[in-house]
Write the structure tokens for this entry.
Amino acid sequence: MATTDSTSTQAAADRSDLEAFRASLRAWLEANVPKGRGPWNQSGTPENRAFRVALYDAGFFGLTWPKEYGGQGLTAEHQRVFNEEMARYPDVPVGELVTVGICAPTLLDFGSEEQKRRHIPRMLRGDETWTQLLSEPGAGSDLAGLQTRAVRDGDQWVVNGQKVWTSGAHLSQFGILIARTNPEVPKHSGLSMFIVDFSLPGITVRPLRQMTGEAHFNEVFLDDVHLPLDALVGAENDGWRALTRMLMHERVAIGAGTGGSRMGRDMFGDLLALARKRGVDQLPAVREALVDLYTKEKLLAWMGQRMRAEAAAGKPPGPEGSLAKLANAILSRTATSLGMLIGGPGAQAWEPEDPEGGDLAHQVTFSPMTGIAGGTSEIQRNTIGERVLGLPKEPQTDRNIPFKDVPQASVASRG
């Protein structure tokens, strides 16, 4: 009986703590979030960064991160409350997914103590914006085939190569780079991970214009970039293991919102309101599509809640990240199709003075990216098949031969 009473008392204390946290957060948001749609743009812009700094300084960001690295040391339940409150401000970007959801967790896993203490608090606060230097023109889905080289020269590494589809590189101060450090071994065995300071000479960033009209992605050229020896993350030639973990973090962050920010906006609520506004909410096709969207959104939210709790408990990310990433892409396409169904001609032509004009058209042109960035939906299905269902791997004829002997890589390896 005493144990039961003790448990009940602790549960009541936890509820009281969460209620106090919610009230404090709600009051802070009401006082600090600009009314209306706000001056929000891409993550990493001055307006978003200033808001993030204020949010962090108030104790409302990095909630489940360890205190020794600048976090708040709170629970997954605090993060859930944060997500619920931020859902009332769907136009306000909170965390930079790449910086907080991908790069920071990778440093936490593989970085040196100095790297973690130097960078992670600044990443959480918004003082540093990071990107990933992974994909190349000849190495997208097969990242192990990358040809960017890092050669040790005395007390430094010299890097040469090209990266592409680099999210937010034009706004970043640092990046995590995967480069080949040993072409004499099979392709998965000769890779290493590095921290790259974008202020170094030899780095050129060129934005890539998307069909939305925005330029979120970039190509990055590295020409004789000199990195210090302590830029190495983890062990030399152990980059594939670190990269695999980083990709898991990426898929979980995209699919489950573990980067410290909330999940995506309430698409069901937005589209239901739009359907009512346009007087089509009673049409059978619209109602059926709304139910389908609601179901998928709830399933992904519950999946995300579970994965955020596991992350807060210290469980390493696994193949469930691919499930969430795939579900997120499917949800995005479902919402886009429903938006076009509801919007009709208004989804393609609108009055210039309409503050929401173009929202649906933007979503149509943006949505395909969700099935590509962070690993295509086909790659996610392969991962699920192999690591969840136990299906055999795709044949790989170049997996066990030295990278320098792979035909398409031989010229680059000799260069």
